[in-house]
Amino acid sequence: MKQCKFTQWLVLLVVFTLSSASIAGMYPQVLMDQVVAAKKATPVVSLDQFKAAIDDPAIWIVDVREPSEYIAGHVRNAINVPRVVIEFKIWKRVGYPGKTNMDQKMYLYCKSGGRCALAVKALRDLGFTEAYRTELKVKEWVNAGNALVK
């Protein structure tokens, strides 16, 4: 009986260790390094600034998650411009090819912070001077009592 319990514990330990290792290695280190570099290189707004901007029409709240994530629930008044296409889709929104507003203030967010850091870096590299990232984790946002809309 003791041997059986020991074997069960050993199996659980191995399964837990392997699953933790697979999550930690979900993305290559080179990508994680890029996210860290983007976070260091881009300005961030506080959650209080973000909350205050939600109803300010002069500031765009930009959800850079995939459309299916956005449809499942997003911050009130947010527009969806997915990270994967933001460098292409943003131009029409800022008036290109007419009068292009490169100073449009934008607060970007995503599920956990990585995509919005990369998106803000890309926008700033293109010359957008007022793109900011938010250290918003959607799950924590909801758990703190903030609503998402569908």
How would you describe this structure to a colleague?
The protein is of the alpha/beta class. The protein has a domain at 42-143: Rhodanese-like domain (Oxidized Rhodanese, domain 1, 3-Layer(aba) Sandwich), CATH 3.40.250. Helices cover 51% and strands 12% of the residues. It has a 5-stranded parallel sheet. α6 (114-126) links the parallel β4 (105-109) and β5 (131-134). α2 (29-41) crosses α6 (114-126). The chain is globular. The termini are far apart. Mean pLDDT is 87; it is low at 6-23.
Describe the secondary-structure layout.
Elements: H1 2-24, H2 29-41, E1 44-45, H3 47-53, E2 59-63, H4 67-72, E3 79-80, H5 86-93, E4 105-109, H6 114-126, E5 131-134, H7 138-143
Parallel strand pairs: 1-5, 2-3, 2-4, 4-5
Summarize this structure briefly:
With 150 residues, the chain is α/β, with parallel strands linked by helices. It contains 7 helices and 5 strands, in the order ααβαβαβαβαβα.
Order of helices and strands: HHEHEHEHEHEH
> What is the share of helical residues?
40-55%
Give me the side-by-side strand order of the main sheet.
Answer: 1-5-4-2-3
Low-confidence stretches: 6-23
Structural class: alpha/beta
Q: Evaluate the radius of gyration.
A: 20 Å
CATH topology of the domain at 42-143: Oxidized Rhodanese, domain 1
Fourth-level CATH superfamily of the domain at 42-143: Rhodanese-like domain
Distance between the termini: 53 Å
Q: Strand tally, please?
A: 5
